[in-house]
């Protein structure tokens, strides 16, 4: 093979350099499920089944969304590094694959940057009263339309009763509670504290709350206290995402093709980075869509028509305290996201 022929393949190898930054992508429970598989003439993007959630992601929608957020982050980082790649979706559940990155002739430009990817973070704390400007909401709607989806803007007051019901369902399920505890890193002494999962600081828990969570979610205590009002207590403590006056954005898609959920995940990254650049923060809440008792009402609230269904639900707004004062959720070393 001549030098010229090998160049595109060599440029694919440079994806190893950006894999670590791209892993800053938002992902459910911070399990970082993605895997880059280097083949002779392309790079496959897939997932490791041990990082797929169980009861907390019953339809594996969050898994596919999280793989999409990663693909989009990779493409943004590749564009800035001048690596010419194109994305070829090819979802295959048996091959645990969502698609391939192939060498392209020219690098693609992106309006979003590596700094955006690195800076973005989730916000689970309290919100200011300040409202998200209409222009930011218009832009989100436009970006969604360009990607073949729709964004519905729902007032928090209308969304809140659904969120409360969904939390009740969420905390009432022993499997979901156990999985949340398994991915919670409630003290810096946890062996995986600097690698993955949900840490006490970014869950916005005080030391006492972290301690209480560890205690309440331990299976024997959970079983004993569940009939005595534990679920109601946890629901009250956790429904902050729709408190106050503000808005929730809901991404709606059509049909049931799992590959579309990967594309919706790519859209999540675009929307989130655009909002983040304007100082607007995001708190996704998956269980409103997972809960069989709320998803239909949410669809109605969004005016869903013609086979549309909600895929992502997130509060947007301005944090009441400085999010940058909190250490970010960690990521595993980039080598751990790469196979071969
Ligand atoms: C598909 C998806 C679903 C998510 N669902 C929730 C959720 O239900 N509740 C929540 O607090 N955060 C949720 N998140 C945010 C993740 O927990 C967060 O991205 C992850 O912990 C990494 O933190 P970072 O975004 O600050 O890097 C979700 C993120 C994604 C991409």
From TrEMBL:
Protein name: Nitroreductase
Top-rank taxon: Bacteria
A molecular function GO annotation: oxidoreductase activity
InterPro entries tied to this protein: Nitroreductase-like
């Amino acid at each position: 093979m001549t030098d010229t022929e090998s160049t595109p393949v060599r440029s694919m190898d440079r994806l190893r350099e950006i894999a670590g930054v791209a892993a800053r992508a938002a992902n459910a429970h911070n399990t970082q499920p993605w895997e880059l598989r280097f083949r002779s003439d392309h790079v496959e993007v897939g997932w490791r089944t041990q990082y797929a959630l169980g009861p907390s992601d019953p339809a594996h929608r969050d898994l596919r969304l999280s793989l999409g957020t990663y693909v989009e982050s990779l493409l943004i980082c590749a564009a800035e590094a001048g690596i010419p790649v194109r994305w070829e979706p090819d979802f295959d559940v048996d091959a645990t694959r969502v698609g391939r990155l192939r060498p392209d002739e020219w690098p693609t430009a992106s309006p979003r940057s590596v700094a955006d990817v690195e800076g973005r973070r989730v916000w689970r704390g309290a919100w200011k009263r300040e409202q998200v400007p209409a222009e930011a909401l218009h832009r989100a709607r436009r970006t969604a339309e360009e990607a073949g989806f729709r964004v519905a803007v729902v007032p928090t007051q209308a969304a809140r009763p659904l969120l409360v019901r969904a939390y009740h369902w969420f905390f009432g399920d022993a499997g979901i509670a156990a999985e949340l505890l398994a991915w919670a890193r409630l003290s810096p002494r946890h062996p995986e504290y600097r690698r993955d999962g949900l840490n006490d600081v970014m869950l916005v828990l005080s030391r006492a709350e972290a301690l209480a969570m560890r205690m309440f979610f331990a299976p024997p205590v959970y079983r004993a206290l569940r009939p005595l009002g534990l679920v109601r207590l946890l629901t009250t403590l956790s429904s902050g995402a729709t408190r106050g006056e503000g808005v929730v954005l809901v991404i709606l898609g059509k049909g049931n093709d799992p590959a579309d959920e990967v594309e919706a995940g790519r859209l999540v990254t675009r929307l989130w980075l655009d909002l983040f650049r304007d100082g607007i923060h995001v708190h996704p809440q998956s269980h409103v869509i997972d809960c069989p008792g709320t998803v239909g009402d949410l669809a109605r609230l969004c005016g869903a028509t013609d086979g549309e269904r909600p895929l992502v639900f997130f509060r947007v707004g301005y944090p009441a305290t400085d999010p940058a004062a909190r250490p970010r959720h960690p990521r595993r070393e980039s080598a751990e996201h790469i196979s071969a």
